[in-house]
Specification:
The structure is a homodimer of 350-residue chains. Chain A is an alpha/beta fold. Helices cover 45% and strands 14% of the residues of chain A.
């Protein structure tokens, strides 16, 4: 008898999918889910891919369970220049850290950060930065860390647009994620950034729940607090370096399936995209090229753009993309709007 | 405008949930989803928990996103005696391994396994077993491993019931997982067994997709095969030992949320349950006690049952469960049917 109920439930679920698909399609005449995208090769690649993988009977059809799409975060979903948002968080945490551990006030690199001298801070070595990251991202309970990040992300603003970082997410990419989800795709973030960090705001910002965020992860240690309550402490022990080859490795660990679509913007996303494209059937691979100095930033060095150490898009990556049919998204030409917050601004004016 | 569409989609989704819930409730009068459970404290604890956490307005109400339930596998979802199924897989792989690497034929412990002498195999030390596990679970591509495990799990049978291992899953636990899912819970396996191993059959056997299996995990290494195609190779490098304290640590890594309900059967599940119970609000913790030598096995040593090294349920765990309100499931008294395959047998007879 419970088989009957299961069938009912399955039918109800199938009915919803049909309703959702019907709504999406009937609406597509009036509403363009991808309205921040200009017509062109990039937008066409997305629409064609989704159409061919979700049309019953198509040779490229994918069962809903196999519809996995992975997105890099920094430079793909939100601004990464002049410096990664998480690094700013870590620098901002230093005064609180020193309040708790006063002995650090005269120890480098904390002393330099406390001085507030931007030129000196910008010159900190990678080793110094790693010390700051370890001191501000580990050593506390996972609960405490979540509270700290939440408070910061809700209030801190960037220095160019004076907006919260979560307002500097790219509207076209948010639309793309929604469009994929409305077509049965499960969207994942696969980021070189901290898994615990991104999970704090991913649901509210991207509609992606914590369990669908794969990122660089330190180990946590189970133990008990003074009152004997179980707790997890963040340890300075790298478990997954989710960048470059670490991205497909992290995808295997955390998802266990090969994505059908992958989106990135830098050399750190190369192996994730190669792994995605190496699967059978139709696959979509796209790279955001930051070629819009006016509305955002311009960096490569691919295609003659200025070189950078933050989110490097090399000529080698550009050539591999061209050769293997990965689609390059030109921020300048393919996006008629950059930030999710622009929409809000326009609406407020009406 | 796409906000209008999103609202529509959300309403459609909400409508389905209502339809599903209504169906589940209207059906509950006639159909008992938990029909392999005898009436008693264990069944009541499940029904009460689900009712209180899914009833709007209840002080224990949980938003669907927070409905996370974690299940140990060995001894909780399927038989673990006399030896873990995955260990049998590894022993069964040895002849193939030696065919590929003939130099192992005269090397211990492979020589003993090849001899087929059960008494000698049973006496292998933990160190010997680890050598066999490493040799049969790592060194190959992830794709190859999946094919090998799939072929084995589809054909190998156990020596007592002569049934495939996936037929020796516990019917009451499968019902419980379905019951939770039909009430909006996301079900996860959190096992000391190999993550890659369990993921091969978890969807078909338990209705749990690979990305919802957390298990002991070795690292994988990204690289390219001779034809230059990207591939992942399983490495003998332990990343997550998903047992004891490793269970809550693995839950944090892979899910990033604290479960609301957790199910286990041995000392290896203690920390997962403590972590689950330490959260706010109503939580459900249950332990399967193997006290049915006739229909399955009897082991503890809790409650005067025979001692064992496979799936130990210590008196200490038993006492902690009693003290902290974890519910103990007696296989003998709480389950009117043990195996999922019994149902099939009955139906075939009709």
């Amino acid at each position: 008898m419970d088989l009957v109920l299961e069938r009912h439930l399955k039918r109800a679920a199938a009915a919803t999918v049909l309703v959702a698909v019907a709504l999406a399609r009937s609406a597509s005449a009036q509403v363009d889910l991808l309205r921040s995208w200009n017509d062109g090769a990039a937008k066409k690649a997305i629409v064609d891919f989704v159409h061919s993988t979700t049309t019953q009977g198509s040779t490229s059809f994918l069962a809903p369970a196999d519809r996995i799409a992975t997105f890099d975060q920094d430079g793909t979903l939100w601004v990464e220049h002049p410096v990664y948002t998480q690094v700013i968080y870590c620098l901002d945490r230093v005064p609180t850290l020193v309040k708790e551990k006063p002995e650090l006030a005269n120890v480098e690199p904390f002393k330099t950060v406390l001085s507030g001298k931007r030129a000196a801070i910008a010159k900190l070595s990678m080793k110094d930065l790693e010390k700051i990251l370890a001191a501000t991202l580990t050593g506390m309970s996972t609960d405490r860390f979540q509270v700290d990040v939440k408070r910061w992300i809700d209030t801190a603003t960037d220095s160019r647009w004076h907006r919260r970082y979560t307002e500097l997410t790219y509207a076209p990419m948010l639309e793309l994620m929604k469009y994929l989800r409305s077509n049965g795709y499960k969207t994942y973030i696969v980021t070189g950034g901290g898994q615990d960090f991104v999970r704090v705001y991913s649901e509210e910002t991207y509609g992606i729940p914590p369990e669908q965020v794969v990122g660089t992860a330190e180990g946590v240690k189970f133990g008990y607090d003074k009152e004997g309550r179980p707790m997890l402490t963040k340890e300075p022990k790298l478990l997954l370096n989710d960048d470059n080859a670490g991205k497909p490795e992290g995808i295997h660990l955390m998802i266990g399936r090969r994505p059908s679509a992958a989106f990135g913007n830098s050399d750190g996303d190369r192996q994730m995209i190669e792994y995605t494209k190496a699967g059978n059937g139709t696959r979509l691979a796209m790279l955001v090229l930051h070629d819009d100095a006016q509305r955002e930033y311009a960096y490569g060095p691919a295609n003659g753009l200025p070189d950078t150490k933050v989110g490097t898009f090399s000529q080698r990556l550009f050539d591999e993309a061209r050769k293997d049919g990965w689609v390059i998204i030109s921020m300048k030409n393919d996006w008629n709007r950059i930030f999710s917050s622009e929409e809000v601004a326009k609406k407020e004016k009406r």
